[in-house]
């Protein structure tokens, strides 16, 4: 495999924003590994992505809540392609309920996936990204700066993720690693059991976030957009 190739690992890449990012990166000529807790979903999504460019995608069964699982995912990418250039920490979950009704299990899963899972991803990827002078991108949310009723778990996880990402950026930039957090508003995905339809045409599309990622990695090394808020340009009145 040529040393000129670039590779990316995207958590939660079998659907939604993660899949949209993978589509765009493959079209840019980047080899992509996507992860899912479901081995079947990961394999099916990778097969679909390989219809864009044959041999450019692999699916990995991995759970961001487990550090060893994340380390294995990174090792699989390095074993396959010799390097890891871009890590997109995208896996996320949403549980929404007033604090009176929010269960301990829903709280724990939200924090474990949306926040601790990104910490485990970073720990697993740091060595490979240091070697490649790579990029660690987190997918947060406008809910990371804007709170709302019923959002105590989700807000806490995304506020924490924004803080984590910005602090990590300052920790690793002198090692040549870039860190950016992307904070989308309404995106047309299956998130939180939503079923996308033509009524979602006004929303940000998953491939729009993919284009932002593709543009970020082209920015000169001397420049770092550390936090990007993304909103639909024309929401319903």
Q: Can you name the CATH architecture?
A: 3-Layer(aba) Sandwich
CATH class descriptor name = Alpha Beta
Radius of gyration: 17 Å
Provide the succession of SSEs: EHEHEHEHEHEHE
Query: How many structural domains can be distinguished in the coordinates?
Result: 1
**Could you tell me the strand content as a percent range?**
5-15%
| Largest sheet properties | 7 strands, parallel
Number of strands: 7
Lateral strand order in the biggest sheet: 3-2-1-4-5-6-7
At CATH level 3, the topology is Rossmann fold
Tell me, rounded to a whole number, the average pLDDT. 95
Unreliable residue stretches: none
| Percent in helix | 40-55%
Number of helices: 6
Name its key features.
237 residues; Rossmann fold; 6 helices; globular; alpha/beta
Explained architecture:
This protein is α/β, with parallel strands linked by helices and 237 residues long. It has a single domain, classed as 3-Layer(aba) Sandwich (Rossmann fold), CATH 3.40.50. 42% of the residues lie in helices and 15% in strands. It has a 7-stranded parallel β-sheet with strand order 3-2-1-4-5-6-7, sandwiched between helices. Helix 2 links the parallel strand 2 and strand 3. The model has no long low-confidence stretch (mean pLDDT 95). Belongs to the short-chain dehydrogenases/reductases (SDR) family.
